[in-house]
């Protein structure tokens, strides 16, 4: 009897639309693409920050060299 009632329940369930599986897969792929784009944007931001830090570091090194040269020049002329 239990099996019979289960079969009847299954018959009453609406059947999925034939394209529903494809739409679901399409939605999953779109979500995956969106997630990957977010990750790419994050990584691009990190790369930009690293270049900024590198440029700042190089600028500071140049400034320090210039300061050292000025100090050395002042000490020579004393």
TrEMBL record:
GO CC entries: central element
Compositionally biased intervals (Basic and acidic residues): 62-78
One Gene Ontology biological process: meiotic DNA double-strand break processing involved in reciprocal meiotic recombination
Pfam families linked: S6OS1 (PF15676)
Superkingdom of the source species: Eukaryota
Record region (Disordered): 59-78
Protein name: Uncharacterized protein
Organism: Eschrichtius robustus
């Amino acid at each position: 009897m239990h099996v019979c009632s289960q079969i009847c329940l299954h018959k009453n369930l609406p059947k999925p639309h034939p394209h529903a599986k494809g739409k679901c897969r399409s939605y999953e792929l779109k979500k995956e693409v969106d997630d990957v784009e977010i990750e790419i944007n994050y990584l691009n931001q990190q790369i930009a920050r690293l270049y900024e830090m590198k440029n700042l570091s190089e600028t500071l090194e140049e400034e320090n060299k210039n300061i050292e040269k000025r100090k050395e020049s002042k000490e020579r002329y004393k």
